[in-house]
Each structure stands twice: as structure tokens, then as C-alpha cells.
Amino acid sequence: LMERKTHVKINRKEVILAELRRSCSCAPQKLKNFVMDFFPVLRWLPKYRCKQYIWGDVMSGLVIGIILVPQAIAYSLLAGLKPIYSLYTSFFANIIYFLMGTSRHVSVGIFSLISLMVGQVVDRELLLAGFDLNDDAPPALGDGSLQNHSLSNTTAFNLTIAGINAECGKECYAIGIATALTFVAGVYQVLMGIFRLGFVSMYLSESVLDGFATGASLTILTAQVKYLIGIKIPRSQGHGMLVITWINIFRNISQANLCDVITSAICIAVLVTAKELGDRYKHKLKFPLPTELVVIVVATLVSHYGKLNEVYASSVSGAIPTGFIPPKVPEFNLMLRVAVDALPLAIVSFVFTVSLSEMFAKKYAYTIRANQEMFAVGFCNIIPSFFHSFATSAALAKTLVKTSTGCQTQISGIISATVVLLVLLFLAPLFYSLQKCVLACIIIVSLRGALRKFRDVPARYHVNKMDTLVWVVTTSASALVSTEVGLLAGIVFSMLCIIVQTQRPRTALLGQIQDTSFYEDDLEYENLSTVPKVKIFRFEAPLYYANRNYFLKSLYRLTNLDPNLEAARRKKYEKKEKQHLKKGNHRTANGLGTGETTLQLVPKQIDFQALVVDCSSISFLDTTGVNTLKEVLKDYRNLNISVLLACCNPSVIDSLKRGGYFGKDFGCMEEMLFYSIHNAVLFAKDHK
Q: What is the pLDDT of residue 386?
């Protein structure tokens, strides 16, 4: 016999008050621990093993810095901003994460999916403000004076309404939107950290994240095609951007710039070949080849000395200023405009950062603090937003490069920031002649990992069909509608899949494994023996309001007995018998004597006297679930069939007790509840 432990009731009010007193106390040691927890660098930096770690950190930092520069310039196309702002973002994010991050290996900075989400908001707001989204269009407002063009007047009016000075042109307004969006996203992340809302990331399954990344990659690819072939088409906005963009591309394909097409073909061939060789011989290479940097340097030199912009009208990056722009507080009025857009941005940024941090922490046997990661990525957005930067996140590709080049701590992030700083202070103007098609090639080749997910669809389908369906829905919605809608659709659809799976779960009748005390599904296994006069029913899901009817239908179908119909049939038969007896006819409706009537009341199809319900897969019961089991108990008892429950977990037993399933004093509990199916079967055999 097993007896339940008596649990002492916890006074939640006292617990909360004690926690508040502990949290609000300001002892010196507590303050010190708080500061050291908030800035983890204070804990690990004094213990830094210089001789052991410094070489790997310097090498990985230099390699990541070299990769960051071309990627930052390239991803500025996705964000719809000038390259200088991408460099600012990469610089500040590395420094702040060095101070606040708990992961030793992740590389936080500019990320393609985040840049795309920022760019979509920037494009929308520019369009609403009356600006031309064409990259090469002249500024709507120049040198502080209003132009006579009607578009300029519209722009000036909208800017005034938005709370921005009329002298602010397209570039100024674009970075204003980006910094406001970044600031709000960072505030959301910090608030989520304060209120410990990290559990939100649990609703983004691997299938949803993969589908979102793949769908967004298709959108990124589509947005870069116009740069690859050098055509000028309007930047599509809103739902269906991918389809509209491809229609515009094919309509204007005849205007393709031959110089850009040839340059793109050469760059893609070089980049893909180098990536494939790098993947094949990565175990022999001490650090990855800086192919992107080589391509950018060579392409810039060719473009400059070949005068490709002047002779062939090839679009180039243009002037990139050096130094730092004075900091500026993000505009509050713009924050209100982008407050809704910042929420999915904050969630995606946090989820990618935490998932990568946990993955590499597990791989290298250390722990991270998810809540501190939320603070770290939040302040990686809040603080840089004052310095003309936009949203950041951890990036898988750069993190893999960091670990493969010997990274040990976030000292490597400081080295990377130093490389970016050198570019910001001295080298940025040298990229003036860099063609935009080269940047587009770098972006497209960087999407290989996400686009390769299409090859995994058959294997994914073989493993789990439902997860594959979630991936397809998320990918399609992200690509064909919008990234935000795709993310929301993926989350909602994955939840619906879980609901459907619990609404129509597997059900089975069990048979006994010969010469054992174990029981399994009759339809799945051979050579199982049927227990005489006993039916064993298994329901593989929680029993609650949404699957109540399915539970009853499955039980009636598998046992081949609906107790309600059988009870109605018996009542109808008894009524006919009474009518015959009143008429003085001692023969029944079947032509039998009254003495033989009792035998007819027991239908021939009832071949069992006990029903055992295997509750091992029922994780919880709600009120409807308890009432359903009570109804089953009552209906089968009316037919003289006993109902026995087996393998119930403690929470299910408690629900049954509270629901009155075992009666008021639980007196019949030992005859209704068993800790194994075999015990229930033995009891049924002994109490025929």
C-alpha cells in the first residue's frame, strides 16, 4: 500500500513579503553582488588566464573584425541605412556585450534577419513621410530650404507632424526611425528581464525559428536581386512584397546593367567556391579565409580605377564619413509610431541570442543566465540607439567562426570592436567606389545556411510530419506576407497543432504480453493475449474539455459498446414487456416466456464485465475531464460493468478526489484505483 505524504501549506503572502524584504535590502555585500551580477565581466576578467587564452581571443577577434566590416557595409542595404550606421552598430554592440553578457563565445552585432525587420519598418515610415524609396533619389529637403517640388512639400509636412525638424532629410529621418525602433525594442527586452518573461521564448519552437529564418532569407534574397543586375525598381512595401518585387524585376529585366551582372557573377562564383572549399578543408585551416574582405578590396580597386560608376553607371556605396556623429536622444514621437513593430523585433533578437548562448554553453560545459542575457541584449539596443545605431542580435555564422578560431572569452569582442573602430576612424572613405552589387553578393552567399533548409524537408518530414507543416506555414507566411506576420502565424499554427494533437490523440485497446504482467497496444504488437471479460483502454493525452467527446467516442468504438444506447434499448424492451404483461400475455415480444426475459436483457455483444482505463498518459484533468470519468463510471455501472482506473499520477488522483469521483469518504477508492494495469486486471478477475 502507498500512502500520500502530507504537504505543509505554504503561506504565499509571507513568502512574497519575505522575498520583497530580501530584494529591497541594501546591504553592502548585496549591492556588490548585484553590480557583479549585472556586469559579469567583473567576475571573470580578474580570473582571466592571459597566457592560455590571449592568443585564441586575439585571433578570433581579428578574424571576426575583418568579417564584420564587409558584412556591416553589406547589411546596411537590408536596413535601408547608410553603411556608417552599420559600423556604429557593430562597434557598440561588441563593447556592451563584453561588459554584460554571460556567454563566452557568441558574437553579438549586426544580423541579417534583424536588419531586414528594421529595414521594413524604415521603408514603411519613409514612404508614409513622402520620401522616394529609390536609393539614388536626391534628398527631398536640401540645405535647410524647402524645394518647390510637390514631393518635398509633402515630406516637410509629414516630418513636422512626426516631430522632426523640417531640415531633416531622408537619411536623417531613416536613422531617426531606426534608433527609435531600436530603443523601444531594448526597453521591451529590459522589461522582460525585470519581470522574468523569458518563458516567452518557449513558444518559438525550432520549426518556427527555422521557418522564420528561411522565409526571411527568401525576402532578403529577393530584395538584393535588383542590386545584382543593376536595375532600378521601386522598393515594395506591405504584404506580398516578395511577389510584387519579382514581378517588377521581370518587367524591368531589359534595363539590367551589364557591368553589374558580370561583377555579380564573378563575385558569387568566387565567394561560393571559397565557402565550399573552406567547409571541405576547415579541419586543416587554422582560421577561415577572409574571402569577403578580399572580394571587397579587389572590387573596390577595380571599380575605382576602372571608373565603373562614371563609365557604366554602376551603383556604388558613396561617401562613408569617418569619426563619430554626436549622440542624440531618439525621438519620442517616433517611438510611438514604431512601438508595435518593436515587439516582434525584441522577441526575435532575444530568442536568437539566448538560444545560441545556451547551445555553446552546453557544448563547452559552462552555464549562462538567460535573464542576464535579456538585459545584455536589451542594453545592446538601448545605449547604441543614442549613437545612431540600430538593433542587434547574436549571429550563428560569426559565432561558429569565433569558436573555430580559438575564442575563449569576450575579450575577442573587444578586439573585433577595435578593428571596426580603425575602419570608422581612418578606412571608411576608401570604400566610396565599392559597387552595391558586390555587397548584395555577400548578403546572398551568407544566406546559404538558411536556404539549405529546403534540402532538409524530406528528412524533417520523415521525423515529424506536424513539425514539417509548421515549418512550411511559417516559411510561406514570412516570405509571401511579411516577416512579422510569418512569425505570428508560425506561433499560432504550432499552438493549434498541439491543440489538435491533444484533441484527437492515439487511443488503443491493450492486450497482455504473454507470461508477463505488462500490456501493450493490440494493433501495434503481435502475439498479445486478450484478457477474458476485461477491456483495457488507453487514452494518450490529457483529458479536458476539448477532447471529451473524442474520448467517449473512442471508448465506445473500441469496446463496441455505447452504454447510453444500450440503456435506452433496455428501457424500451422493458416497456414492451410491461405492455404485454398488462394485456395478460405471458409470452414476451420475442416469443419467450417471462422467465426467459432476464436473459434477453443482457445483450450478446457485451463480452466483458470490467473496464480498465490506463491513465498513464493522462497528465491532467480539468473539471470536464473529471465529470467525463464520473459519467463513464455511472453509465457502465448501470450495465453491471465495473470501471477501474490504473496508473494515475498524483495530480490526476487529486483532481478525482476533489471532483467526488471516489465518493464522499473515499471508501471505495481501493476498489476503483490501482497503481498498475496488472493489479487492476487481477482485481477484476477475482471479483467477477
A: 96
